[in-house]
From TrEMBL:
Residues 1-37 form the signal peptide. It comes from Streptomyces lavendofoliae. Keywords: Signal. InterPro entries: TAT_signal (IPR006311). This is Secreted protein.
Amino acid sequence: MHTSGFRRRRAAGTLPAATALATALLATVVPAAPASAAELAPRVDLTVLVVDDGGGAVGAIASELKGSGTPYRTVRLTDPARPVIDAAFLADTVDGRPRAKYQGVVLPDEAPQGLAPAERAALTAYEQKYAVPQVDAYTWAHPGVGLDHTSEGGSSGVLDGVRTDVTAAGRTGPFRYLDGPLTFEDNDPDVAESYGYAGRPREGYTSYLDMPVAGGGRASLVGQYAHDGRRELVVTFAYNQHQRQFRALARGIVEWLTDGVHLGQNRNYLSVHVDDVFAPDARWDTERNCTPGDIDCVGGGDGGASTPPIRMTRADAQYAAQWQRSAGFTLDMVYNAGSGEEWRTEHGGSDPLTAQLVADRAQYRWINHTYTHPFLGCVQDTSTVPWSCAKDAYGNTRYMSRAEITAQIRDNHTWAVNRGIAVDRAELVTGEHSGLRTLPQQPADNPNLAGALADTGVRWIASDNSRDPQQRPVGTAKTVPRHPMNVYYNVGTAAEMADEYNWIYTSKEDGGSGVCETNPASTCLDEPLDVTTGYASYIVPQEARIALGHVLGNDPRPHYVHQSNMAEDRLLYPVLDRILADYRGLFADNTPLVNPRHRDAGTELARRAAWDKALADGRVTAYRIGGTVTVKAPAGVTAPVTAPEGTRKNLLLGTAAFGTGYAGARSAWTAPEALQSAVTLTLPTT
């Protein structure tokens, strides 16, 4: 559970009252034209200045900038060696043209105590001269930010579980991608997770997010305060980067901060891989609290015979196809054809499940999971618990051979092609992500894996995000980290799921394993879940919340579950239904879920890595002059750019519409056309 670590704000110095003239001055995206023909329009660099006090609010905004690929410079107020923020720090001249070094400014509040009065004055003058917006990351409601005090018809206090709404101005402005109510998280009734000040707007203040208050009417939590030739986005509630209310608003905060023109782009991604399709999965033993077949299961080593295996039926396959159609969402079937063939042989040559899935093959996406799901890493010595890597007579680790790995990949692909299943040979998920390093037993990849991937044309191999979260090369291939969903592979019913969950997350005193007590990364349940209701009442909302956090975090990594979760009680669907309902209840139609293929997720991560390196190396130059945006990046590096609807990309001859529409803006990974040295965009006139 994430909590905001909020602090109540005390009064800082107040600012002068807003004027109607200031609002009119700041109603445009593009800085005003120069006063005379001899005065050059300024160059505004596409970089954000972040003044950091170490608080969660500034950290959250910085995380959004970083995750979107938007460059920023941080000044840490606690750093005694930090630069002084003065006129020279903020602006200079390049090629005879005045340059504003930052397109937006993020401050902890409207008057940070860590800034000297002269620094605050320099920022004010800079923002006035270049029409640069400022975000007050977290402050209190008072006239200095365009709001009445909370005692004047507003409210203050814990916001957990409070429903807020995007106003008409917010829905037509920076939060135009939000549609429904935004309810603040309340994950633990015993913990205050967010605190806020809702104030009634004064002159010059436009509310974007508000809530009802006692006595009638509404008061604001987020809004724009225009005054003295400047604009501030005022946020009067505490938050951190993980909380849903911030994640939902983060995109709009960046759009407002950059006037909708910035490097970086943001999407809401969700794809779900269903592993072990065609293969049976072992079942949790609720009496022995282990999975038969695992070497650490007392009486195990029996191949799971003491508990019936879990495998989808024809009816489960029919339900999956029907659910996809009604949900408007496509699943990725990660299949083991050889395991299905073995099942058919063992059951008199009949396999209705495979027949149904093959008949419905066009309704799914398919990913190679190897033919029979073997462990592709070192040869496992199961005489010890946990297992270890077997050694040869010379003490060298024994590994599965290149030929064996190649055959597993090739045979599974061939089986699918022969049955008319569209499968991309470049995509692979190995059984248990094996072949890749598995700590602590196998600290390095199987040295034969890279060659086998090259032999079979694999470019994107799945890894487990919980163990191997960063994309990395494996020979000529790259990993695609996947998020494990906490719906276990070895359960078919809600009661089994709750039972295993209790074993893992309750103390020994409560009948659990006690791992939650000894593992510092874990926590124990206050009391065991009711096995008849615990899955629906506790596990489903928790897992949906975690997955939705990834979705709202601009994270393209796939999630993975197992075919067992689509069998028997069909445990997967309540989680997915909750994710989809929560998402679609909040976001407008202009912001659909993006459901990328395995290879597309890998490509996105690879582009981001190249882009982040180019930024870190200082090899990106991007700026706006009037209505023209120029972006220069190293050769071979595509740049993520976001701009308003109506933006055109300049070609050698003529222009073309820039990017694709998403969340009310246009964005794309883009590079110069042939014979061009930079990307140039023409912004729409306002």
